[in-house]
Amino acid sequence: MRRHPRRRPGRRTSALLAVSALTGGLLLTAPQPASAANLITNPGFETAGTGDMPYCWEKSGWGDNDFTFETVADAHSGTKAMKVELTRRTDGDRKALITESAECAPVVTEGKQYDLSLWYKTTTPDASLTLFRHDATAGWQYWTDLKTLDLAADWTRASVRTPEVPAGTDRISWGVSVYGTGSATTDDYTMEQVADPIPDPECTGTAAECADGRWDVLPTRNPVRSMHSVVLHNGKVLLIAGSGNDPEMFEAGTFETALYDPETGDYKAIPTPKDMFCAGHVQLKDGRVLVMSGNKGYPSADGTIGYQGYKDSYIFDPQTETYSKTNDMNDGHWYPSATILGNGDVISFGGLREDSTGSVTADLWSDEQQKWLPTWQVNQTWSYWGLYPSMILMQDGRLFYSGSHVFGNNIPGTGSAIYDYEANTITQVPGLQRKDERDQSMSVLLPPAQDQKVLTIGGGNIDSNPEANRLTDIIDLKQPDPAYVAGPPLPQGTVDLGDGPVPQTGDQGKMYVSAVLLPDGKVLETGGALHNRADPVFETSIFDPATETFDPVAVDPEARGYHSSAFLLPDGRVMTTGDNPGNGSWNHDVSIYTPPYLLKGERPAITSVIDTEWTYGDTQRITVDRPIAKAELIRPAAVTHSSDPNQRFVDLPLSVDGNNVDLNVTSNPNLAPPGWYMLFAVDANGVPSVAKWVHLDGPQALSTKDASAHVHSFADAPRGKVTEEGAKRTSQPVSPTVSGCDRHYGSANVCVPTAFPEEVKATTADRCTWLKEHDYGRLKVNGKDDPLKLDRDRDGVACGKGDVRGRR
Fold it and tell me: Which parts of the sequence belong to the Galactose oxidase-like Early set domain (predicted)?
């Protein structure tokens, strides 16, 4: 029996139809069996059941709507078909599904795919093929919507290939959902298992490379100190540095951006109008890059004034390769969030204001008006979300704050929350482990986005500066009351504590984590450091969402800590750049990772894309040069500081006819916000094609305002603490040492930690020894204060000979 999903408070609901999983009773005719190949029992509704539904079929649905279920004589074959009609709808849907019983629901095998088909007529554009799956532990649950049915006055065949069956699934149920006024009449269902994949190909590299991939350090170095990386829809990479955390460049007004072409290896200098160091950025739906805020000023020499964020905002145009100014934001946002919404708008939270205090103002970019809206037009909770808070768009348009952030402690509460912009409420989400040690952890919406699972990896705390952790946490946002559960610990690698790499021990993990979605449906995590801008960790692994396990692979030979980036290129490789340790230096070397899937012989190719302009609920045809198992859209990276909340992998269910493949595009723009995407085709061995670029935009499939009704309403009323709009206030007090750096020593790009690692004794000699081992060099003392007692002889130079000779 399909249970009624939870709904948001205030929604009207109607009683769920009572259904009976027919396991016995009198049948009017002998059961129509499944054929040898077809796994559907009673596929044409010819066998009657004990009630008003055919044998092995049940009514289902939810919401406030008027509906009818009817067995009609207007059949594609035989004498009967099933008609589901909505005559009035406020929300919800109605569907006819295979009965969820051991007698009726088809048995499936983990990791296999199945070809589904049916014949249909529709009078509404709002109908889709919907799947449920039976988990051996959790029972029956919604799986996914695979295909939107086009309007069809005459009998039309729809076919689609399922994703690989998830682990723990033993049966599935499926049918047609109607979620708009009108009807869908269906008949002649089929379900067949896809043939087993071809044998594994021969390895084209060494045995180690085919198992773990390969890293190459490029001969050409990145010319700028870039901490912002954006993959553009022409395949080039925008590398934004601004002043590059170099106060001398800031004082000189020298701001830099480079445009990297992976095909030629060339870098092009781009005139940069403002210091975009530690700005926010997001790709708009037309492929231009919105860059918000940045650095208005470095901290004062005496440490009494912190970083300052300006209100300016710019757009980078990949066609003209130039920046242009927009209107100002309502507040400064140094280190802001930046999340694109399902309608193409962009919302931004957090960061530091022009006076170095924390911004409590939400800013909203209107796609329609192409400007930042005034504060009074934007819902406000007056909450301080911190620095680079990871705000991930959910399938129903709400935002999930994952708990990943930058600099010090997490926000008050559980450290994770769901924000409902329309209701203007914040609901605490439980379960995040050691929420105040998730500084520069990384969070990703796991493949596929339809599963609505988020993985959070690692982290530390630059205030207390403990050893970074190995924690991972996973949350399923499709659950009625979502909560994090502990994931597997990060694998350990080596750490360089100043005398060369040594194996990690105990619970040593890493912060400054990078995580990249790969076209085979897995996640590469790489880079990191054990402490605040110190002690690089050399460890790389691949996370498999299907098994929730990490597989250690080849390791990036370059240090990749603070201000590093990792991102997917359209050819399926991963590029890493940057590293800015506390001594103020910069790593200009660039590494390229070739995953094992590129060493498995010849890769499939997308030989044609009929149309590169896609709309929601569409069916798009491509041709390939060999059979493929799956296809997906991957949103290109816009990453900085272990943060890219817009990164997502959207599954495209297939309808296969030889080398012609029809791709079924989601009808929900919250799953795949409008914009340019990399389209990959992947064969049965996990080998991806080179990506083709497609542009997703256009009208939503739904004819009502409720853009996610047919996707069901999960996490609608989580039981965590709920807060409404707070009292209006100007800002949040923030310490000038928010970056974990004591500005009494050295220049502004040098970070002497306010708290040294726990193993460093609180003596001048031990602290100075640690600084020397980490290549800090001579440090001028700024002003008269010496809070860390590094200038005991008061000569204005920290850790000089007179400071450490005989001193404790």
Answer: 603-695
Q: How many CB atoms lie within 10 A of CB 160?
A: 22
Identify the three-state secondary structure at position 552: strand
Backbone angles phi and psi of 803, in degrees to 5:
-80, -30
- 3 state SS of 158: strand
Contact 716, 7 (CB under 8 A): yes
pLDDT of residue 32: 53
Rounded Cα distance, 719 and 722, in Å: 8
How many CB atoms within 10 Å of residue 87?
Answer: 11
How many Cα atoms are found within 13 Å in the side-chain-facing hemisphere of 683?
23
Classify residue 789 as exposed, middle or buried by CB count within 10 Å of its CB (0-12, 13-18, 19+).
middle
Q: What is the pLDDT of residue 8?
A: 32
450 three-state secondary structure: helix
Rounded to an integer, what distance in angstroms lies between the CA atom of residue 128 and that of residue 245?
51
- Per cent of the chain over pLDDT 70 is 93
Q: Which positions ≥6 away from 115 have C-beta within 8 Å?
A: 159, 160, 161, 162, 190, 191, 192, 193, 194, 656
CA dihedral 118, 124, 128, 132 (to 10 degrees): -100
Which element (helix H / strand E) includes 211?
Answer: helix 207-212
Is it true that the peptide bond before 448 is cis, omega within 30 degrees of 0?
yes
Beta-carbon neighbour count of residue 211 at 10 Å? 14
The residue written with tokens 């955390």 in the block is: 245
Judge whether 408 and 401 are in contact, CB under 8 Å. no
Q: Do the Cβ atoms of 726 and 379 come closer than 8 Å?
A: no
Distance CA 774, CA 768 (A): 10
CB 760 within 8 A of CB 595: no
C-alpha count within 13 angstroms, C-beta hemisphere, residue 515: 35
Closest CA to 236 of 216, 218, 215, 260: 260
Phi, psi of 711 (to 5 degrees): -90, 0
pLDDT score for 701: 46
Chain-centroid distance, C-alpha 510: 20
Q: 52 exposed, middle or buried (CB, 10 Å; 0-12, 13-18, 19+)?
A: exposed
Residues of the chain with pLDDT under 50: 1-30, 36, 701-705, 707-709
pLDDT at 700: 56
Helix (H) or strand (E) holding 802: helix 801-804
pLDDT mean across residues, the chain: 92
Token look-up 């309608």 returns 343
pLDDT of res. 2:
39
Q: What is the pLDDT of residue 702?
A: 45
Please tell me whether residue 744 adopts helix, strand or coil conformation. Answer: coil
The two tokens of residue 36 are 């040898």
CA distances 17 to 23, 134, 249, 440, Å, are 18, 20, 68, 48
Position 784 scores a pLDDT of: 87
- Which amino acid is located at 612 in the chain? T
Give the residue among 232, 378, 388 at the shortest CA–CA distance from 315.
Answer: 232
- Number of residues that this document lists for the chain: 808
CA-to-CA distance for 594 and 214, rounded, in angstroms? Answer: 5
Q: Is 286 helix (H, G, I), strand (E, B) or coil?
A: coil
Amino acid letter for position 677: Y
Closest CA to 704 of 85, 123, 179, 121: 179
**Dist CA 245 CA 279 (whole Å):** 12
Tell me how far CA of residue 681 lies from CA of 513, 572, 634, 651, in angstroms.
Answer: 28, 11, 11, 11
3-state secondary structure 713-748: CCCCCCCCCEECCCCCCCEECCCCCCCCECCCECCC
Using one digit for the tens of pLDDT, what is the confidence trace for 562-617?
999 999 999 999 999 999 999 999 999 999 999 999 999 899 999 999 999 999 98
Question: What is residue 23's predicted lDDT score, i.e. its pLDDT?
Answer: 30
